[in-house]
Design a protein that fits this description.
about 240 residues, alpha+beta, 7 helices, 12 strands, globular, PPM-type phosphatase domain-containing protein, protein serine/threonine phosphatase activity
């Protein structure tokens, strides 16, 4: 009924020496993880996340259950590493992934990486940020426009972390032919407004050019963080 095509790009940005983002692209699974923890341990955490998820890049009878099990396994592996090496105790990672079941996506999300959908020219945010400012927006204590500029907008309430919980959002996302999905780390979404992201996603050109343009837009605004963009198009079979 549908076929998938994708393009991906990742860039350290202009202010970071290392790139702690990790990404997976396969026939059925698409994921971005943004590591944290310093001393390159963020890179370790994000790479563990996508390595565990990569095992799901096959047919799954119950994709949401499979994704839930994977997040639990990631948390256990991070905790085991931190117990072996105390320097790793603060490491963790965000995770946003789409697992295709042939007709729709199973979504797994924790942290502040994002999944956007461009459908018929309209951009929507599929995932919800697990941040303090988003919680304040949800409670009516802050306007969305204020949240976008708040200096503490990257303060996470949930992530996959050594010794922590693994309470990811898990849900199905129905698709239509022509849908364009973008999974990105906050190196893009923190500095490029949704209106510009929508414009770039809708631009003519191949998928690789769109990804390059998104990364260039983030770097044009100072590139303060690592930038990863994974584009998935849903096409008629």
């Amino acid at each position: 009924m549908y076929s998938l095509r994708y393009a991906v790009g990742t860039d350290p940005g202009l202010r970071r020496e290392a790139n702690e983002d990790s990404v997976h692209c396969g026939e059925r699974l698409f994921a971005v993880a943004d590591g944290m923890g310093g001393h390159a341990y963020g890179e370790v955490a994000s790479s563990i996340a996508v390595a565990v998820l990569a095992d799901l890049d096959v047919d799954a009878d119950d994709p949401l259950t499979e994704l839930a099990g994977a997040t639990r396994q990631i948390a256990v592996r991070l905790t085991d590493l931190a117990e072996e090496n105390p320097d790793m105790r603060g490491m963790g990672t965000t995770l946003t992934s789409l697992l295709w079941d042939g007709e729709r996506f199973a979504v797994c999300h924790i942290g502040d990486s994002r999944c956007y959908l461009l459908r018929e020219g309209q951009l929507s945010q599929v995932t919800r940020d697990h941040t303090m400012v988003q919680a304040m927006v949800d409670e009516g204590r802050m306007a969305a426009e204020q949240a976008a500029e708040h200096p503490g907008r990257s303060m996470l309430l949930r992530a996959l972390q050594a010794g922590g919980e693994y309470d990811a959002d898990l849900f199905f996302q129905d698709v239509l032919a022509g849908d364009r999905y973008l999974i990105c780390s906050d190196g893009l979404s923190d500095v490029v407004a949704p209106s510009e992201i929508a414009e770039l996603l809708a631009a003519e050109g191949d998928r690789e050019q769109v990804v390059e343009a998104l990364i260039a837009a983030a770097n044009a605004r100072g590139g303060p963080d690592n930038i990863t963009c994974l584009l998935v198009d849903v096409l008629p079979a």
